Amino acid sequence: MRLSPSFTFLAGWAVSASMTAFVHPGLLHTNADFERIRGKISVGAQPWTSAWDTFHGLWLAQTSYAVRGPHAIVYRGGSETQNYGDLYNDIASAYTQAIQWKLTDDTSYADSAVKILDAWATTLTQINGNADRFLAAGIYGYEFANAAEIMRGYSGWPAASFEAFKTMMVNVFYPVSLDFLTNHNGQNGVVWPTDVLHYWANWDLCNIAGVQAIAVLIDNQTMYDYATDYFYNGPGQGSVNHTIPFIYIEEGSGKELGQTSESGRDQGHATLDYALLSVIAQTAWNQGLDLFGYSNSRILAGSEYMAKYNLGNDVPFTPYVTRAWGNISTISDASRGIIRPVWELLYAHYDGVKGLNASWTGAMRDHVLNNTGGAENGVGSAGGNSGGYDQLGYGTLLFRLDGN
């Protein structure tokens, strides 16, 4: 890693200029994306219109949504009363209502989304709990930043309120994510030589996504470069060559398949890795950096491997050793075939943008759609527990491209 960050390196962030100009909005969605989607809906094009009809009626995406927070301290894990569900539901509502505003111009959605953002910005001071607090910081950090990034252009959100939200993200979410990536909950430097790899990839990936999203939100190039550098070179499981450590050549097609480090654990967590990798890569893409294509499109190789296996096919597997689980000798069939809203984004990029062979990813996308009424689901409809809120989803509406 080129950087040795501390919790003080962002001093003066609010007034310092970034090294390069960030695109806004520029996390998962740009203004061009919203214009493309609006155009499809306006002429009744499919599958966007049917996906929009479902999204538009989503219970979380209504101005009547009953805000569940805010709380001064959010707990995930540990002995305290668990209230993190209030946070992820409120984030999901703010995000989906922000999209409603961008696609309808109805400012009642904008006002409702801003109300949620402001409530948490003026109240939340800490994310606490056991080790799971790091998951909360990373996952809800990148999702919250996405909601605010969409709303940053709303004239009804005063500049002072937006600044207060950014300050909360820097003071509450960012330090927890950076602490994890730097120290891995105290595992770094322990005698066993691979203790930095103690935590599975999704722990690193969600916190990379969180740091990256906050960096764009607050226009901080140093923070953004740290997240990018960790994706390339980080010592933990979340650097892409650790997340996807083994590459095979598929017989017949000649394309690469990438074994995912969590594939020997279970398929629920292994597919979560791709939900998070796609968030990191899409954000970078919108900022002018192609992480999708890094290392001969390594994310695609991993996506093809995961999709092929979860569609019921055999894939090669190399045994490996983990600190927490010991020897992993075979791929896991736990949660095999899981329906997770991640494949639309990946297929849209690799097939629609790049024109690459992403046939297994496309087949997995179609399998998911066959089980979700023809449109990818997401927060508020992909399951009621926290796992249904680990990715924002709704890719059929938000990421599908022509001919894709």
Automatic annotation (TrEMBL):
Domain Alginate lyase, first and last residues per copy: 81-311
Organism (species): Cerrena zonata
Recorded GO MF terms: lyase activity
GO cellular component: periplasmic space
Keyword line: Lyase, Signal
Signal peptide range: 1-25
SUPFAM superfamilies: Chondroitin AC/alginate lyase (SSF48230)
Listed name of the protein: Alginate lyase domain-containing protein
Entry superkingdom: Eukaryota
Pfam families: Alginate_lyase
